[in-house]
Amino acid sequence: MAAGEFDIIRSLFAPLAAEKGAFALDDDAALLPAAEYVATKDMMIAGVHFRPDDPLDLVARKLLRVNLSDLAAKGARPVGYFLACAWPKTATRAQIARFAQGLAADQAQFRIALYGGDTTKHRAAGAPLTLSLTAFGAPARMGMIARKGAQIGDDIYVTGTIGDAGLGLAALEKRETFAKPARDYLVGRYRLPEPRLVMGGALAGHASAAIDVSDGLIADAGHIAAVGGVGIEIEAERLPLSPAAKDWLERQPAREEALARLAGFGDDYEILFAAPPNRRRSIDMAGKVSKTAVARIGQVVKGAGARLIGADGDEIPVESPGFDHFAG
Amino acid sequence: MAAGEFDIIRSLFAPLAAEKGAFALDDDAALLPAAEYVATKDMMIAGVHFRPDDPLDLVARKLLRVNLSDLAAKGARPVGYFLACAWPKTATRAQIARFAQGLAADQAQFRIALYGGDTTKHRAAGAPLTLSLTAFGAPARMGMIARKGAQIGDDIYVTGTIGDAGLGLAALEKRETFAKPARDYLVGRYRLPEPRLVMGGALAGHASAAIDVSDGLIADAGHIAAVGGVGIEIEAERLPLSPAAKDWLERQPAREEALARLAGFGDDYEILFAAPPNRRRSIDMAGKVSKTAVARIGQVVKGAGARLIGADGDEIPVESPGFDHFAG
């Protein structure tokens, strides 16, 4: 491979750089315009957070979107990002170019720009593509929606549909089979999440606490519960499901177990949030204005932890409560 | 290993978090106080940027310092950082704790705090510790010192001494041998660079362009030359050398070749900068006030690229002009 690091930065990444402040990636640092910022950093590793054979333009877009999803759940409007890539020893210029194309597509869609970063290469054979992205944005005028703040008596809501990404991953890993259009939809939900940015902005000032669903619905509800010192109950029959997920659910022998699996899957990148009951109309309005489906699925209660509740009022055990990279 | 991801974050990293804005690392995002920021991101990979057997507290401190050094060269005062770690499959809690101890030590020294990040683990056997840090700081009142801006006729300066880190690495890799005190000094310079923060702040308003020496003196001078559309000449006999490096130089059969090696080594993390001749007194003063040695080593000239010039006025070829991760 003849392409050098500086050529790769100049030809593939410099075109993605912010017009002001990023210095065409010719500097070691960027100058961010004076403002208050919300910032977040998420890492993705081949073989851990995505499949090594996932198309690299989609990997790039997912990396951006999981970070934008964090900003969305905080009610913030994204502005830009810093990117660090450690490529495998065997990476080719064409692969890096495809990755940069994915970034370019999503930059245009979300009106953000690259501010700086670092591009390097592993020396160890077999060391996987390792990506780290720091995204920053402007908080809503009403302020940042924190993870902490859910009050007893609040409603619990979630945007979009739940469980699709987990089913998409199961399809890719051949643990589940789906007919063609459903399969494409579910795999698409796994590979290319939709950060709920407009909805997040509309929730600022209404939501008492919020998080994006990355570890799994019940696991992430558990995070809100833990930092808020409250309990959360989610009604299994109220989970918003896509047609493809409903179809799958109908085919399962044990309905409650299947609902628990959907509530355990991660990677949906929907916004899970709490809001006082007197905000129900505002929440509906926020959903309509942002053209985002939103479902009221539970309540904040006394106690601790998050529980999935069946139609009979009993708790349904949910396995894999979040993805713990250090467990076991 | 029983320690889970959340426990590791809570017990090892949360104590490092900023009092305000980092939400005790309980949130996906941080809120940065309203200001103008200079930001930088550098990645470090075991086996590429540090030796796999380097003590992990020193690895952590070097990771912080290479980023602080970028801020120093921009004249910025560091405020905080985001950190992403992908640990090898086999990492133990004790190793991560030692890493966190290193961060704590340097946070205290440089008065900065952790604002957020991501802690995860590789699944692939042999995948190395991969670290990415995004540091941000406040620009000096006189503004950020850019890499671009060197003018023909400017003087070229460098802080501290040059070549020590490269000799330290050579000692660790048993390519060179040194007597005990010199060896410790040189290895220390490789493992624990000193970001020239006070000097950097004092240079704002005086330096026309600056960079920190990470790729190598000549390579980094080449970066300043390239973005400035100028040439840079550095006089080999003016390179500031430590007693240990002088000693080594005396022992080399070919003096010019040896000087070229020192000018080719990376990892010194000194500030290399340009300033107009009418600022000589201000530069001297900045060095005195910040207790930082500073040497005038060359000139900005017409042309392109950076050259090392011998006592006879001829160019001395410098090998390994910077570390290109994607070369060859």
UniProtKB/TrEMBL annotation, chains A, B:
InterPro entries named in the record: PurM-like_C_dom, PurM-like_C_sf, PurM-like_N, PurM-like_N_sf, ThiL-like
GO biological process, one term: thiamine diphosphate biosynthetic process
Residue ranges occupied by any PurM-like C-terminal domain in the UniProt entry: 152-308
Keyword Transport: no
GO-annotated molecular function: ATP binding; magnesium ion binding; thiamine-phosphate kinase activity
UniProt name for this protein: Thiamine-monophosphate kinase
Note in the entry: Reaction mechanism of ThiL seems to utilize a direct, inline transfer of the gamma-phosphate of ATP to TMP rather than a phosphorylated enzyme intermediate.
